[in-house]
């Protein structure tokens, strides 16, 4: 498996690096990450594997995981653990939408519905994503030409309730301020004002819905789309989102 990995990763981020592995006619995605990030994702998958039957069908299936062998050198030396999932013709929803011009309204509504149902499954499993965005939903074309949607990438996920008792967990989330993707993270995640709940994930999904139906998110680098401009809610978002984004791009010294 490791010998067949393509040298150039398809994703090279701070928290993880994703490589493609080919075995015969099958393609697989190998995500290398730090131990802390790997443990977060594995908590979701281990909870999923503990559930009998096939109740959760919209959470991407885990094929293998563990510590990377010493001979495999990830581009980031801190990325020492991996998870393996099936890749084949899987594409993230954002890429899928961009490659199909003239997509019908019915198909867009299907994408919206299926991504929401995938997010619901994660919540029923007892976790919040805390990084809901188009790139973290995938669509796969099955052998009988049906579209299958998945949610994946649980690097920032948190357990919010015990699936057996249904009781909320009491763990305090630290260091969550500003985490996530600036363009789609809910306000409470940008401010760190409280812990994240499913309703906040759904807020992020609404930005995905806007993108699916309208072709872009409602935020512009300087200001939201016209229908959002007179909203105090949107103004608050604009300031927080793009101040943080500005710092991320140019560095904190530039704002002194």
From TrEMBL:
Molecular function via GO: ATP binding; protein kinase activity
Record PROSITE patterns: PROTEIN_KINASE_DOM
InterPro entries linked: CK1_Ser-Thr_kinase, Kinase-like_dom_sf, Prot_kinase_dom
Domain Protein kinase: 4-256
Superkingdom to which the source organism belongs: Eukaryota
Classification via Pfam families: Pkinase
Protein name per the record: Protein kinase domain-containing protein
Phylogenetic classification of the source organism: Eukaryota, Metazoa, Ecdysozoa, Nematoda, Chromadorea
